[in-house]
Amino acid sequence: MQTQDFEQIRQQTAQAVREVLEAAHLSAGDIFVIGCSSSEVLGEQIGTHTSMDVAPYLFEGAQSVLKPAGIFLAAQCCEHLNRALVIEQECLEHYGFDQVNAIPQPNHAGGAFGTIAYQSFDHPVLVEDIQAKAKAGIDIGGTLIGMHIHPVVVPLRISMDMIGKAHIICARYRPKYIGGSRAIYDEKLM
């Protein structure tokens, strides 16, 4: 891939994050989870062509939208770290998560996106679990992020369905419906 292709991936990532934020109505202090296969973004099978070249563009695209909004990014690592998440220490302290000891690596355990997040955050920490506290997220390339989003997880359709060559699935949280057939629901929360 060429530099202009990577720039397009950065722009696609920013656009996807922006659209999810708009649809999910997140607020400062909320968590946005991203699972990302850099291999899939490049058109390869997940876990086969980890790319430290494309991962910074994905990270920068996401952070260009999330950071100004005051929303915490949780960068999911690969299955070899049991889908642990890289977050800022401020997020850990705000939510009371437990830190674990591992440093993501691109070709061993963690993946390129998790590694870039660890290298790029101001005060990165790794947590095994965010206790399903994320309010929304994007799965880039089939990485399975649903476990990190607060129930009820609902899919979101946005104007795009790919970043690079990877299919994306966007999701958000919505409050549970209770009360049955007599209940009236707040349309803003649906």
TrEMBL record:
<dbReference type="InterPro" id="IPR006340">
    <property type="entry name" value="DUF436"/>
</dbReference>
<dbReference type="Pfam" id="PF04260">
    <property type="entry name" value="DUF436"/>
</dbReference>
<protein>
    <submittedName>
        <fullName>Uncharacterized protein</fullName>
    </submittedName>
</protein>
<dbReference type="InterPro" id="IPR028345">
    <property type="entry name" value="Antibiotic_NAT-like"/>
</dbReference>
